């Protein structure tokens, strides 16, 4: 009887293992902005770059890859959590090829947004162009894996998006074009329309597992706090409220598209709450500094203004939430990605 009991246990464990392997994600495919760019902007003529020190000083080999952090970005950690590579390479990086991209690729471009006018600000890769690259990638994958295997890979791959912050901070609130054309509510709806069409495009190209990324509390970015002199350099609550409203609309969009598109599994990955918890209770996460960034003075520098020669750059980025005035440290990225994996993406594991 004891022998039979052990056999049943082994059978159940084997069945669970088969179920887990069957549900496994074969690749992570990423669209978005600087939060998930791994170096695509290095290959285009733009000032929105980070392929120099001190960026990447805590990345493998201390290499500045074009990631806007001292180390890895969230999608790198998510890839590792899914048992894939410990980083997701940039599609335009010439040091990688289709065999590398078969298990993960990012088309993201720092400075871009849903709105093509946002990508025009810093001459970066617009979302429509990222979709073109994705189609090109699928063609290369077919040659590499064959038609059936490619279809299966795309069908089972986790497609991730991280967009929207630049549409508001770099575009709407910085230039008169869109703000003269739309109220803030109308602009949110305009972006939601683009987001919906984008998800439908991915679906039409075979994607079925999709994570739609939300906005962080963008009023708490060091750059915004620095300019909020009248508010005592605190978070700009109006910007945070816009992020909350927009996230609400993204969540509604997720619900409606899940009903509309047969067989899709669309989830909303919202970083807002975990980000806010880190800012309000940093010690709970082993963090100390929340209002300023590690790089340079920590108030307004990013990209070329965050350079290796600045004497003020902190020595230990793991105590900081922000690496530069706009982007989280590797440690903060790890905390955010862990939260998203456990609370949202675990259903794909």
TrEMBL record:
Residues 1-23 form the signal peptide. Coiled coil: none annotated. GO terms for molecular function: hydrolase activity, acting on ester bonds. Keywords: Signal. It comes from the Eukaryota. Transmembrane segments: none annotated. InterPro entries: GDSL, GDSL_lipolytic_enzyme, SGNH_hydro_sf, SGNH_plant_lipase-like. Belongs to the 'GDSL' lipolytic enzyme family. This is GDSL esterase/lipase. It comes from Pyrus ussuriensis x Pyrus communis.
């Amino acid at each position: 009887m004891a022998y039979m009991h052990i056999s049943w246990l082994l059978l159940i464990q084997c069945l669970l293992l088969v179920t887990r392997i069957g549900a496994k994600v074969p690749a992570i495919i990423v669209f978005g902005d600087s939060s998930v760019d791994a170096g695509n902007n290095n290959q285009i003529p733009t000032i929105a770059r980070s392929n120099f020190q001190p960026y990447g000083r805590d990345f493998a080999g201390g290499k500045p890859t074009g990631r806007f952090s001292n180390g890895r970005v969230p999608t790198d950690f998510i890839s590792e959590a899914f048992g894939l590579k410990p980083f997701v390479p940039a599609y335009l990086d010439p040091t990688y090829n289709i065999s590398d991209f078969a298990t993960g690729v990012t088309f993201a471009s720092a400075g871009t947004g849903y709105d093509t006018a946002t990508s025009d600000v810093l001459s970066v890769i617009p979302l429509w162009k990222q979709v073109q690259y994705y189609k090109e990638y699928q063609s290369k994958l077919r040659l590499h894996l064959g038609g059936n295997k490619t279809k299966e890979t795309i069908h089972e791959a986790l497609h991730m998006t991280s967009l929207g912050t630049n549409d508001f901070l770099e575009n709407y609130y910085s230039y008169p074009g869109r703000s003269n054309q739309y109220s803030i509510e109308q602009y949110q709806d305009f972006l939601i329309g683009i987001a919906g069409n984008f998800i439908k495009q991915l679906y039409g190209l075979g994607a079925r597992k999709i994570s739609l990324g939300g906005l962080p509390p963008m009023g708490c970015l060091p750059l915004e706090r620095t300019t909020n002199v009248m508010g005592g350099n605190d978070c700009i609550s109006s910007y945070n409220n816009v992020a909350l409203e927009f996230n609400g609309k993204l969540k509604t969009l997720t619900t409606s598209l899940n009903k509309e598109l047969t067989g899709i599994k669309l989830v909303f990955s919202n970083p807002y709450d975990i980000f806010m918890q880190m800012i309000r209770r940093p010690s709970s996460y082993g963090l100390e500094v929340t209002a300023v960034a590690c790089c340079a003075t920590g108030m307004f520098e990013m990209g070329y203004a965050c350079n290796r020669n600045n004497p003020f750059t902190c020595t230990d980025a793991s105590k900081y939430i922000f690496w530069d005035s706009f982007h989280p440290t590797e440690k903060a990225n790890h905390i955010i990605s862990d939260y998203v994996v456990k609370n949202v993406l675990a259903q794909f594991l």
